[in-house]
Structures are given as structure tokens and as C-alpha cells.
Design brief:
single chain; alpha+beta; five-stranded antiparallel β-sheet; three-stranded antiparallel β-sheet; 13 strands; globular
Length: 320
């Protein structure tokens, strides 16, 4: 039985209480910046702090409404409050620890230009399963599995799992479609073959900070998944696009064939999110996840974890 829990009430005036390793005092950590939560030598949370048995369900969650929204509907939906504040804090501090976002914020404060920081900063963090048990928990959320079961099949797998942090002043992306909706994969004699294909991927974007118009929340073009086309006409894309907005802990779900792009971060804070890309088991994953996942992660894998890693999938078969 899945235990449904309420958000842990550690927020005070929109900030999360944290422990300062240097002063040994309680401080506050804003969800959208690193002020007050820069850890020097250690992380605030350990793997032992992750409660793998308790999941917070989104507000008014109805799997049928989600499936309808991302298939025959506009192609996307926001699930509010899917992760507790503590789970978000655990994930966010691990991401910042690995991409050193605090370092580049500090550099900018020390009169280095944004251009200099961006030349050296890569906000992407890969191989999340090896970077903390909190990511194992988040990847197995029942809502993600339920939606994937229906849309992609009960053996659907993880295709990609990464996190991205965007600095203040950092630019956006060009509009695009995600893997496997790459035109070079299509038959040249039938370039619109995907018009009648079943869904080949679903993207789950976990908001680790608030997403809004100022900090460049992802832009998506509603209904563009129904006839997958690469958004070569950027002006037309932006004319019809809307931007994701939500609070840290929300999850935005959208069809893999949806036209989308990250927008420029014009705020003074960070924007961070986890990108979980699910696909049918018959699609080759975008990442070679099985090649990098640590053996201890595989050894303790739950049935749900084995499923999303395709640990027990028998193909391809070696015939000699």
C-alpha cells in the first residue's frame, strides 16, 4: 500500500530551514537560490534520510485525466505538489553539489561577467542514480509509473534521467523535439510516419525550483504532439507557445512529440529541474543507463526500479 504523506512543514515564510555546517546554526534556504544553503564540506542530507516507503501524491491526481491530457488533449499537464519539500531539498542540494552552481553564482558576485561564468558552467548533471538514493525514489514515483503503464506499456523503461540548472542571465534553447523524434530516423520516403505512430516517449519535468516567466520556464506548443513536426519556424513556435509555471515540487508531464524549448533566465535566481524521459521497452534508450548504474544500485533495486532500468528485459538475445 502506498502511503500518502503531507508536505513536511519546515517552510518558514517561503524558506526551508537548513543546518549550517560551519556555524552549527539553523539558517534558511530559499528554493530558487543558494543564499543560506551553501554547503562547504558535506551535504545536509544523507542517503539514510531518504524515506523510500512514503510517496506524496499530486493534488487531485486522476491518472485517466493525465493520460487524456498528454495523448488526445493539449499534450501536457501539471501535477501539483508531487514531491515534498524535504525530497525537493534533498535532490536540489545534490544537484548543486555536483554542478557547483553556487561557485558560479559567487564568481558573478565577485565581478566576473556572466559570459565568463557561462563559458565554464555546464548545468547538466547525468548519472543521477549514482548520485543519491533520493533520485531512485523520485524515479519510481507511483504517478510516473501509472502514467507510463498506460501510455507506453507496463514494461516501459527509463530512456534518460538528468538534471539541469540554469544560471541568472543564461540563454534559452532553440525549439526542438526530444529523442526519438529525430527526423534522420524517419524513412525518407515517408517523412510523416510518426503521424500515426503510438506515443514513443513521455517527459516528466520535476521542478526543483519555481518555474515562471522571469526565470525561463520551459516553453511548449500545445497540441503540437498530434502531428509531430520539427519547429523550424521559430517565430511561429513562439507565437503559439506557452511557458510552464509552477512551484518547486510540482511535475509537468508532456508528450515526447511536443515542440518545446528552455527559455532565457532573466531573473536573479537559479532555475533547476529533473528531466525523466520514459519510453516503451522496444525503443533503444537515449542513454546507456545500464552501462553506468552502480552495482549496489542494481543489487537493491525494487521491482519498480528493475522495471524502469529494464534489468530483466531479455532482449537483445545473443545467438551463436
Amino acid at each position: 500500500m502506498i502511503k500518502i504523506v503531507l508536505p513536511i512543514a519546515i517552510a518558514v515564510l517561503g524558506a526551508i530551514a537548513t543546518y549550517d555546517n560551519e556555524t552549527k546554526e539553523i539558517d534558511s534556504c530559499d528554493a530558487n537560490s543558494l543564499k543560506g544553503c551553501q554547503q562547504q564540506d558535506s551535504l545536509l542530507y544523507s542517503d539514510d534520510d531518504v524515506d523510500m516507503s512514503s510517496f506524496q501524491m499530486p493534488k487531485d491526481f486522476d491518472v485517466n485525466k493525465v493520460v487524456e491530457a498528454i495523448t488526445t488533449g493539449d499534450g501536457w499537464i501539471k501535477l501539483e505538489g508531487m514531491y515534498s519539500e524535504e525530497d525537493v531539498m534533498m535532490a536540489r542540494e545534490r544537484i548543486y553539489h555536483h554542478n557547483h552552481a553556487d561557485k558560479y553564482i559567487s564568481q558573478n558576485a565577485n565581478h566576473q561577467t556572466i559570459d565568463e561564468a557561462h563559458n565554464k558552467f555546464s548545468g547538466m548533471v547525468w548519472a543521477l542514480f549514482n548520485k543519491g538514493r533520493i533520485f531512485e525514489k523520485m524515479a519510481q514515483h507511483p504517478a510516473i509509473l501509472n502514467v507510463s503503464d498506460i501510455v507506453l506499456g507496463e514494461r516501459s523503461q527509463m530512456s534518460s534521467f538528468a538534471a539541469n540548472t540554469v544560471l541568472p542571465g543564461q540563454g534559452g534553447q532553440l525549439p526542438h523535439l526530444d529523442y526519438p523524434y529525430y527526423r534522420l530516423f524517419y524513412p525518407s520516403s515517408n517523412p510523416h510516419i510518426m503521424d500515426t505512430a503510438p506515443p514513443l516517449s513521455v517527459q516528466f519535468v520535476t521542478l526543483l525550483t519555481d518555474f515562471n516567466m522571469d526565470n525561463g520556464g520551459t516553453a511548449i506548443r500545445p497540441n503540437s504532439h498530434k502531428l509531430p513536426r520539427y519547429p523550424d519556424d521559430k517565430e511561429d513556435f513562439y507565437k503559439h507557445a506557452i511557458q510552464m509555471e509552477g512551484k518547486a515540487g510540482d511535475v509537468v508531464v508532456f508528450a515526447g512529440a511536443m515542440q518545446h524549448c528552455a527559455m532565457p533566465n532573466r531573473s536573479k535566481g537559479l532555475r533547476a529541474g529533473i528531466l525523466q524521459h520514459m519510453a516503451p521497452v522496444y525503443i533503444k534508450p537515449f542513454e546507456a543507463i545500464m552501462d553506468y548504474v552502480n552495482e549496489d544500485v542494481k543489487a537493491r533495486a525494487t521491482p519498480e526500479m528493475k522495471r524502469i532500468l529494464a534489468l530483466e528485459h531479455p532482449y537483445p538475445v545473443l545467438k551463436k
